[in-house]
Amino acid sequence: MAIKKLSDAVVNRIAAGEVVERPASVVKELVENALDAGARRIEVVTAGGGKSLIRVSDDGRGMTRADLELAVERHCTSKLTEDDLLDIRTLGFRGEALPSIGAIAELTIASRHKDEPHGWEIAVAGGRLTAPKPAALTAGTRVEVKELFFATPARLKFLKSDRAEATAITDAVRRLALAHPAIRFSLTGSDRSALDFPGATRGERISQVIGREFVSNAIPIEAEREGVRLSGLAGLPTYNRANTLQQFFFVNGRPVRDKLLLGALKGAYRDLLARSRHPAVALFVDLDPHEVDVNVHPTKADVRFRDPGLVRGLVVGAVRQALGASGPRATTTGAARTLEALRPRGAPPPRAPHRPATAWQSTDWRTSPYRPVAPVAGADTETLPLERPAPGGFAEEQAGFADFAAPSADARGHDEALGDSVDDMALPLGAARAQLHETYIVAQTDDGIVIVDQHAAHERLVYERLKTALATKGVARQILLIPEVVDLPEEDISRLLDRAEELAETGLVVEAFGPGAVAVRETPSMMGEIDIRGLVTDLADDLAEWEASTRVRDRLDHIAATMACHGSVRAGRRLKAAEMNALLRDMEATPNSGQCNHGRPTFVELKLSDIERLFGRK
Question: Where is the MutL C-terminal dimerisation domain (predicted)?
Fold first, then answer.
């Protein structure tokens, strides 16, 4: 068959298939154009999930008649300087959105530039352009899209329900609102409840979009390395979700869903969450535009970093350090659920006054007791141990444990006199007052009470000590009597040999063995007998997906977690007063002690004011 040139109409429809996946894509492109035009107020109106109507109005600079005619032509843009695709400082730059939308829908654009006596309007329907005509408009631009995909009915059939498409539009607007907090966004329509985000600071906008509860259960992230800056909020491990819908990433003000950043976040919470749970975060990456490529895909949702290792290490290190330095913190949701469970049946829920969230208090890492120690040979820099005060002596108290009777079914205070412990009450976890059901420690603080799960708490303490030992003393290796030879494709072997030093730090020693194989000479002794061939194959797959050599570290961490679980204080053990207080002091000095190795909370804190409202005293 002879080669022929495609018509402009077909070319536009092909381009539209890449740029306009669904109504939410149209909203995203139009709002980004408004932001690039310097708008301070953006209004979005939809109907029928965006299939029937999408209207985006802004108060930006507007366009002249000449600019308006060029705006609906393919590859016409005002956002590139001297065709430099490496210096992109705007959200849009490809010049494909408006002509692509006009090729598959009824598009009308009205705009007024400050130098024009009146506005101008132009229309495009299924690729057919009408001449501009005068329009009544005070300032800015109004873009209206009707009957989306009427020119491509096959694509229309694949869209979801009106409700699902309206939800996708809401998510797109929320992400853009998070990225640009100073801009006012409003979202209305017959297919939705109205949303309005007034201009605010970043912290206020996060509270508006994600919710006050998230801000109250998150810690601030501020870090910079070699010109790459990371900021935002990371949720406590105990404030987790069943999906990734509350994970927001932004690169130079652009919402992205990048595999590298998602993988880095997973690594940061690696031993703090169960595999089926996901953290909630709002993280902003800012760097020189020349160091990131946003021209990977027409939707601009994927990016490529010039130095991906630097960005990944920054995300993992900053989040892990912040989580470790936060000390023991309980989620506010845990206290709320506890109070709800204690509330008498039929009683109305108490109205809790708003308390300002403390998640944005700054932390000086130089004076923090949890500052990172110097790198240790053989240690994983992403899981570097944190320097902390020496444990309070709970391990010594444990040595004197005797076998006690089975736990009783009642809940009573400890028989031993606990004393006043006034000084301990001023500490974060307070002074132990009782042990209930030989499982839970009740402590009194200056302004409330703390309930501690003794097994979950001690499990975290033991686990952190095991990790520290692994990092400081190195991983013991087991030399194989006969090296294991593993056959792999040459590209996988190349990846493994490039990371041979890192693998050796985790106890796995590999060497080249001919053109299509590697020889494994040593394995981590902590693992015992393992499937070496399966492990090396999995490592090669990990490296191909930019997960780095984490599988060995994951398995070591899993074994350490298992040892911690089986070696910790069991539920049903009665503890002495000194043992309970020693456990509380160790928790205060141990990073990540707010949750066990499986992501469950180790304690719940109830403020005295909440308890007083529960009993109607306030």
Answer: 432-575
* CA distance readout (Å), 507 to 399, 525, 528, 544: 32, 8, 12, 21
Whole-Å CA distances, 127 to 30, 101, 309, 540? 18, 9, 44, 48
The HSE-up count of residue 319 (CA atoms within 13 Å, CB side) is: 33
DSSP helix/strand/coil, 3? coil
Phi–psi pair at 304, nearest 5 degrees: -130, 125
For residues 145 and 106, is the Cβ–Cβ distance under 8 A? yes
Strand 106-112 to strand 140-146: parallel, antiparallel, or no bridges (unpaired)? antiparallel
CA angle 508, 510, 515 (to 5 degrees): 155
- Nearest to 280, CA basis, from 294, 268, 295: 268
Q: Among residues of the chain, what percentage have pLDDT more than 90? A: 38
Cβ atoms < 10 Å from Cβ of 259: 12
The greatest distance separating any two alpha carbons of the chain, rounded to the nearest whole angstrom, comes to 96
User: Which class for 385: exposed (0-12), middle (13-18), buried (19 or more C-beta within 10 A)?
Assistant: buried
Measured CA to CA, the distance from residue 30 to residue 101 in angstroms comes to 10
122 close to 85: Cβ distance less than 8 angstroms: no
Q: For residue 228, how many other CB atoms are within 10 A of its CB? A: 20
CA distances from 293 to 89, 180, 305, 307 (A): 11, 21, 6, 11
Low-confidence ranges of the chain (pLDDT < 50): 352-392, 396-415, 547-549
Calpha distance 185→203 (Å, rounded): 16
Question: What is the distance between the alpha carbons of residues 329 and 605, in angstroms, rounded to a whole number?
Answer: 9
Q: Are 78 and 194 in contact (CB under 8 A)?
A: no
CA distance 171 to 24: 8
Decide if 384 contacts 372 (C-beta within 8 A): yes
For 143-182, write each residue's pLDDT tens digit: 999 999 888 887 888 899 999 999 999 999 999 999 999 9
